[in-house]
Amino acid sequence: MILIYTTCKNEEEGKKLAKLIIEHHIASCVNMWPIGSTYRWEGEIKEDQEFALLIKTLESKLQPIEDLISRNHSYSTPFIGAIEVKRINHAYREWMSGVVR
After folding, report:
1. CA-to-CA distance for 53 and 86, rounded, in angstroms?
2. For the chain, which terminus, N or C, has the lower number of CB atoms within 10 Å?
């Protein structure tokens, strides 16, 4: 299992991406929350409110999710990072195997 983390411009975009991911059966769940971000863009320091997504999926679905986010994201350079999860509980793993194809 892996967790994929990304941010988007607002809740509307976050929900759109989450729905697409779940509709395509490439993740079991997408957690979402508002988040404040500070970053450098085009030589200036920016502070914005964004919307974070944490996507629970299988390693084999990383590329399809990355492709889907890249095609449907409003940012020209979205961050898409994956974290390997070494262990999950058996019941969740069983459920996940039934919803991720």
Report:
1. 20
2. C
Question: How far is it, in rounded angstroms, from Cα 82 to Cα 90?
Answer: 21
Contact predicate 19/29, CB 8 Å: no
Are 11 and 34 contacting, i.e. CB atoms less than 8 angstroms apart? Answer: yes
What is the distance between the alpha carbons of residues 81 and 94, in angstroms, rounded to a whole number? 25
* Cα–Cα dist 37/86, whole Å: 28
Q: Position 99: which residue type?
A: V
Predicted local distance difference test score (pLDDT) of residue 61: 98
Numbers of helices and strands, H then E, in the chain? 3, 4
Tell me which CATH code domain 2-99 carries: 3.30.70.120
Give the position of tokens 């991911």.
Answer: 21
